[in-house]
């Protein structure tokens, strides 16, 4: 087996394990908080929301920072720091007895979730541009599958072993992942064929917001996660209303949610390969429109099987968007700052994870749960409009764009 293939397999497995730790507490979060004391329902719900969102808030901030460190010091050391950091924070969660400590540990867990963008940048650095979509699509399957199936696995372990042991078992699995990186990953140090421009963080951030295509990629990345997470807290209520079932609602809701993950897994690689062949912008536009077409009917279903089928089709389209946007970043970003740029892309994903549940709750509170699907669908159309505007304007080379801005910044000093 070649070194690159071995590296890829190890990173795929570790992405699945690490991403799963971020969402595995969802099925039993409120129940775990209730074991800390005799709290009111309102108190438990408030802290459940704060504790779940805490990881994504700190991860949003830290992802590009870890990416910048990886660009400077190498990918493997950053993967190890984050891997063992995640394992320690998850292990300690199994022994907390107050919501405040639990909240702090979730914040700590977010600080060391630079594993995902760093692993993407690592694989990207050893992948030819013409194969980026296929390879990154396959890699993204691991991370997306982990985040989507994390709740299912977490719920099963909590029922079988209890809350504390679930955290312990999860931390051990992440330690194994970190050890796989330690002993299995061989990093080839990149040789710079030309003089490297030292881009400042200010120039990179400004470039992302002022470069038409890259800014659109970041917006679409957020919309993907808003679409995935806006309905997530409401899905069990929607399923219960459809089925009129007094029991097995949690199982049926989990089945419905997992249908999206199955669509992601089966088609992410295919969409990435198509993007390699016909162009990433074209495929991304198609997927935005497909997502709109598949999410709108979910507001009008009359039975569970219809919802499950539409969630599966929706997963096919959104699962394709993630590797396509990542491949666009791979194509546009200079090699020496790909870790940082992918970190920002991951931050926008985490932003969608934060906005999605709040957005869904607000819309459903005012208009009803079916309206969440419709309003989210409109967001995908807006994303398509942004993309169309970006690609119809004169092409901007992102690397040259950054170089020009860095020269301007240096001249002002």
Describe this structure in words.
One of its GO terms (cellular component) is plasma membrane. It is a multi-pass membrane protein. The chain crosses the membrane at residues 7-27, 47-66, 78-96, 102-123, 135-157, 163-185, 213-231, 251-271, 283-301, 307-329, 350-367, 373-391. InterPro entries: MFS, MFS_dom, MFS_sugar_transport-like, MFS_trans_sf, Tet-R_TetA/multi-R_MdtG-like. It is found in: Cell membrane. By secondary structure, the protein is mainly alpha-helical. It folds into 2 domains: 1-187, MFS general substrate transporter like domains (Growth Hormone, Chain: A); 197-413, Growth Hormone, Chain: A (Up-down Bundle). It contains 17 helices and no strands. It has helices at 3-23, 29-34, 41-73, 75-93, 99-111, 115-125, 132-161, 163-184, 201-210, 212-229, 235-243, 249-278, 280-295, 304-332, 338-366, 369-392, 398-412. The longest helix has 33 residues, at 41-73. It is globular. It starts with a helix and ends with a helix. The relative contact order is 0.15. The model has no long low-confidence stretch (mean pLDDT 85).
